[in-house]
């Protein structure tokens, strides 16, 4: 089962894709990568609801995205890596 991850970069860019590999410098290889553009008019969207295609929680324009396919992401520009589908709590195997 392939797991998608969300990667955020310096400057606000964000991509979602399937993790295929990484190295010790945290350079990542993602397949089926999609890049999302950050909304520039976040205040206007929230106040006037001018662009309903903007996710108000993240501020990202959901319709303005581009498919990148197979991508190599440079580790020095990455500020956040998280699961795309969220997380689930598991039992601590070390707790008695």
Largest sheet: 6 strands, antiparallel
Task: Indicate the proportion of strand residues.
Answer: over 45%
CATH architecture heading:
Roll
Strand order across the largest sheet: 4-5-3-2-1-6
Using the coordinates above, name the CATH class: Mainly Beta
Radius of gyration, in Å, reads 16 Å
Number of helices: 1
Average pLDDT: 78
Query: What is the name of the CATH topology?
Result: SH3 type barrels
- Mass-distribution shape: globular
Give the topology string: H per helix, E per strand: EEEHEEE
Summarize the structure.
Residues 1-87 form the Sm domain. The protein has 96 residues and is mainly β. 7% of the residues lie in helices and 50% in strands.
Write structural notes for this entry:
There is one protein chain. The chain has 96 residues and is mostly beta strands. It has a single domain, classed as SH3 type barrels (Roll). 7% of the residues lie in helices and 50% in strands. The chain has 1 helix and 6 strands, in the order βββαβββ. The protein has one helix at 42-48, and strands at 4-9, 14-22, 28-38, 54-55, 60-73, 78-83. It has a 6-stranded antiparallel β-sheet, with no helix packed on it. β4 (54-55) and β5 (60-73) form a beta hairpin. The longest helix has 7 residues, at 42-48. It is globular. The two termini are 31 Å apart.
């Amino acid at each position: 089962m392939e797991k998608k991850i969300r990667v955020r970069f310096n400057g606000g860019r964000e991509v979602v894709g399937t993790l295929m590999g990484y190295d010790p410098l945290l350079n990542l290889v993602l397949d089926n990568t999609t890049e999302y553009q950050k909304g520039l008019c976040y205040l206007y969207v929230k106040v006037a609801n001018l662009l309903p295609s903007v996710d108000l929680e993240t501020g990202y324009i959901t319709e303005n995205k581009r498919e990148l396919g197979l991508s190599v992401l440079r580790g020095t520009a990455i500020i956040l890596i998280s699961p795309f589908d969220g997380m689930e709590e598991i039992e601590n195997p070390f707790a008695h």
